């Protein structure tokens, strides 16, 4: 039995994560938490059965959070200096799952208008 979570590729992990999107839900509503817990246990079982990788729920969440952090760091335009963003395959898939934009740190509101301030009254 393998216990190292590096034995599964990031692409395969994200594809499994795509089937269990409830894991990415931040809602603390009891029904959402229950769906998240059941999805987490199903993902844990799939990792064990299909890939022979034994991971706890905590390890799975840590891996998901680390992957999200690495993705956000790569797509943040303020950090990249407006250089063309090149993402790995797993980063593209995870960005689709998270429904990310090219720059998630700035979200424009639909119908919002920028107005100036008059210097004299």
Automatic annotation (TrEMBL):
Organism per entry: Psylliodes chrysocephalus
Superkingdom, natural source: Eukaryota
Protein known as: Uncharacterized protein
């Amino acid at each position: 039995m393998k216990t190292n979570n590096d034995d599964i590729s990031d692409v395969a992990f994200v594809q499994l994560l795509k089937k269990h999107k409830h894991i990415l839900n931040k809602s603390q509503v009891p029904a959402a938490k229950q769906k998240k817990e059941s999805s987490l246990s199903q993902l844990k079982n799939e990792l064990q059965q299909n890939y022979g990788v034994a991971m706890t729920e905590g390890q799975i969440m840590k891996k998901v959070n680390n992957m999200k952090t690495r993705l956000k760091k790569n797509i943040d335009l303020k950090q990249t200096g407006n250089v063309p963003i090149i993402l790995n395959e797993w980063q593209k898939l995870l960005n689709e799952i998270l429904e990310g934009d090219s720059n998630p740190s700035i979200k424009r509101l639909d119908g919002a208008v920028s107005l100036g301030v008059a210097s004299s009254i």
